[in-house]
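User: Predict the full complex structure for these chains.
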Amino acid sequence: MNVHEYQAKQLFADAGVTVPRGTVAQAADQIDQALSSFTDGQAVVVKAQIHAGGRGKGTFTNGFKGGVHVVSSPAEAKDKAEAMLGNVLVTKQTGEEGKEVGTVYFTEASDIDKEFYLAILMDRATSKPVIIASTEGGVDIEEVAEKTPEKIVKVLVEPTLGIRPYQARQVAFALGLSGDSFKQCVKLVTKLYAFFWAKDCSQVEVNPLVLTPTGDVLALDAKVNFDANALFRHPDVVELRDLTEEDPKEVEASKFDLNYIALDGNVACMVNGAGLAMATMDIIKHYGGSPANFLDVGGGANEEQVENAFRILVSDDAVKAILVNIFGGIMKCDVIATGIVNAARKLDMKVPLVVRLEGTNVEQGKKILADSGLALEPADSLAEAAEKVVKLAAQS
Amino acid sequence: MSVLVNKDTRLVVQGITGSAGSFHTIQCMDYGTNVVAGVTPGKGGQKFQDSVPVFDTVQEAVDIEGANVAAIYVPPPFAADSILEAIDAEIPLVIAITEGIPVRDMAEVKARLSTSNTRLIGPNCPGIITPGECKIGIMPGYIHRPGKVGIVSRSGTLTYEAVWQITSAGHGQSTCIGIGGDPINGTSHLDAVKLFHEDPDTEAIILIGEIGGTAEEEAAAFIKENVDKPCAAFIAGRTAPPGRRMGHAGAIVSGGKGTAEAKVEALLDAGISVAETPSHIAEALFKVWKP
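Assistant: Here is the predicted structure of the two-chain assembly.
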């Protein structure tokens, strides 16, 4: 789960990680109040709050350029904020449709002496949290890793011991800090790790972490991702979820415990099991089609879930054909077949449907489909099903 | 014959009285798995299905019934605790079926595992089966058949697909190991391949992977250097968009790492027969294995 920058910074501040002071406005009439704590002539950074990156270079559909501005007074900040709020920002990560900006974030502009990179994430290879730091901040870290890997330091933390003082020092030394700045950095890294662990983050990223001319160290940006599996123990984090940032079909699917991800193709698919669902997308592509989604209905889907899954699939106007691929183990094929038939009748589906059933009670399942009188295309193997559905999608 | 589990396995089921635990335990007992005990804290003294004694602790199941393998169906918030309890009771093999355990909990479990002699399989996995002898987990038993092919996979239903193709072709499996779809798991592709490599009754190996991490590449490197048995593989997720979690928590391409292309390349480089589609997994194996 992702949160907005302003929410991440608030969480950082609560955790004792130093960030620039900031306020937010979520409607035009909140702008004056939000800017009242800034003094006349003070430089302000105005940032549109959407989850996608590339905001600075983005363009609003109303023609206004840039989702991030540094201005020299609160009055100017107000002008910029008014141009952003309620308007749609298109960046390289949002796609053409863009994202409506519901929140604008004002922060103090900081003078910068040096920019660093700092992140903490779970390292799969070692099954341990790893702190990643670099003197090359404010740029694309993937590029640094590729071109100058010697400029990246990695510190592995023992999960059962937590971060130790020498490890935080290791990071501060690697960034070339000394004196009071060194101490501030050690404190910041220690607090950030504590936050990462306590809140079950899958990743926290500070890019850039900055050193000011007066020697202060602070997190100028903040990006936080949370482990979806652990949200049950963080109701405060769940409250930060912004549903407008997610695909409405994905939000709808999550209500029914369906694992759905929208894609941009025209062949929809419904599958049980995540691995098989991915493989089904692959085989659609292999036969020349383009998958419209990833959908795993899980190992024990009931009729209601199957019906809702279909409803979500057909709500996507781009969908020209649907492939159902079920390998019935625990999930019996006759139950699935009944669900499909009922859903197809209720929803009056217009797009062609190819159904491939295999596994427990497969013969009963096939009979239910055949007897239904519905225009379903049965298929015996996944390859045959994929070929058929791709052909049907191309025709309709 | 097999690896890890067989007819001598004495299984304790943690979470045996829960809905998932009881349903699947009955299926496993019907298959012939020797279920000797169950554990549900607070329900010690009961009998499951009028035959299997239920205990409050795993230690009692070990002391009284001689349990040597544990299966875990405990809900995610409590599952890591159950794994740790099984490790403390010195159970040599623990199979965690539970899906949705927080990654932080698994990092702690993994650290504890490294100081123990316990092997963990999973979590978030279908389990393990030695056809005709012992089924532990949620896979449909009847699609399997005793035979010579060892299968290791991160995915449940995709494994069934491969198993069914082998069985339909008239062959069978030595053991099928579902290692699970989470980013931190107990047994890797590499570990499972080593077991099949050393098992005299496994003639051929199928490795089913998916995007995310580098576990498939590590197994491929080992196969290239050490394994003479014929191997086939399939990698799911060639069409997955980067940065999105595809159902399994571990199935995510991040920073250009963990792509299907990189994995397929490593597998081909190791001389492994890679299936183009999930429908052609058995076919890919039969290209290199003449049973």
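The first strand of chain B starts at residue 11 and ends at 14.
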